[in-house]
Structure formats: structure tokens, C-alpha cells
Amino acid sequence: MVRLRRMTSALAKIAEFPANPVDMFKQILQAAAKGHPDGLLVDMNLATLDEEFGVLNRTVIYRGLTEDNFPFYITHRYTRNFKNLQANPKAGICFYMTNVQDNEGKDLVTWQVRLIGAKAVELPDCEMDALWAKEELVSQIRGHICPCGEPIDYDVLKAKHDKFLEDHLASGKDLERPKSYTAFKFVPQRWDFLKVGRGEIADRVQYRLQDNGKWEAMHVST
Ligand SMILES: Cc1cc2nc3c(=O)[nH]c(=O)nc-3n(C[C@H](O)[C@H](O)[C@H](O)COP(=O)(O)O)c2cc1C
Q1: Which of 25, 26, 143, 186 is the most exposed place for a label (fewest CB within 10 A)?
Q2: 57 C-alpha vs ligand 1 centroid, how far in Å?
């Protein structure tokens, strides 16, 4: 596709932003969910410190906010992301959402939301049963049969999967939560919100946590 070179330019503006970054985040999620009546799957990119590679990132699913208002995701203790966060809880998170309604639905914009200087905190085991019960069967089975990151033979894994599924369906019981199943929330020092539309220079609003525990919000240059 050939894209015509546009000879216009404009500045994006984040016109209003609430005092609390989590409220800002909720507003963006709400706008992003419009046009997705069955619910919007939100991914986040998670970067961790890794002993072998220095830094390692991957996509994980954003599962919502904890009661104390921190974003969390679910993982297994055998993954590298778990091992990385256990060894060093420093993390970077990046959400990327396109075609988000803006300006009362008149425009479509892109949002990038970053959690900067985030500290990962594992959620207590007592919260895991409720999360496990909500998992789709496919995720539950993955948790039981997949040796994350290990080389595998497709046919061997498929046979294991099919047998596991058959036994499970025949049992008529719920699948047990594996010990490896866990979740982390992220406690950031900064929330960074970038908004941009086509033909615009992005605007950013950054919330910086102060020593007194309050958030200071400001526009920052892109
Ligand atoms: C759309 C998408 C969603 C994913 N969600 C998760 C997730 O919520 N938790 C998780 O541990 N891995 C998730 N993964 C898999 C990770 O990206 C990654 O491959 C896996 O966790 C192993 O990565 P690691 O060795 O860097 O830890 C997801 C992958 C994709 C493409």
C-alpha cells in the first residue's frame, strides 16, 4: 500500500486528566472497549531483568486491577517471567491500544500507557482459587501440560494434550489448580500516557509519585 505524504501537522492534546493515574487508565480502557460488546482483550508488554539476556520482554494478558488498584497478570512459576520477577521485581510495562474513540467518538487515536519503575508484587496464594476458577479450559490445560520454554515434540505434546482433555472430560470434575499458578501486580513510580492521532505530534501526560505518596501530573514532551 502506498501512503500519500500528508502536508499537514497538528499537536495532539490530552485535554483533561484526573488527579489519579488509575482513573485516567480506566477512562482509556472504557473508550477502547467501545465497539467490543463481548469485551476487549487487553495485552501488556512486560519487560524484566534477565540474568542471561540482560532484559527480556513478552506479551501477557492484563487481567484487571487488584483491590488496591494495581494492574495484574497471571503466570506460572516455571516461566522465565516468574523467575525473573522473583529474582528482581523491577519491571517495565507497556500497553498499546489503537483505534480508541476520542473526542466523543469523532476521532480515533492511539494510546500508549507505560508503567515506569514498576515493582512486581506476587499476589497471595489465597486469591488464586478464585482466579483459577474463572480461567478458560484451554488456559487451565496449558498450565498442566506445558513445560514453558523447553524444546518439545509437537506430536508428543498433542498426544499428551488430547489424553489430558479426554480424561478430564470423562472425570466430570473441575481441574485442580497447579502449584505453579500465580499472579503479580505492578506498583509503578510513574504512569506515562501518550496519545496520538493521525498526522499529529503526540501529547504525553506523566504522573510522578511524590515522596508524600501523592501523584503529580504534568504534560511532557514526546
Ligand atoms: C496474546 C498473548 C497473551 C499472553 N498472555 C500471557 C500471560 O498472561 N501470562 C503468561 O505467563 N504468558 C502469556 N503469554 C505468553 C508469553 O508471551 C511468553 O511467551 C511466556 O510467558 C514465556 O515467556 P518468558 O519465557 O519470557 O517468561 C501470552 C502471549 C501472547 C501472544
Answers
A1: 26
A2: 9
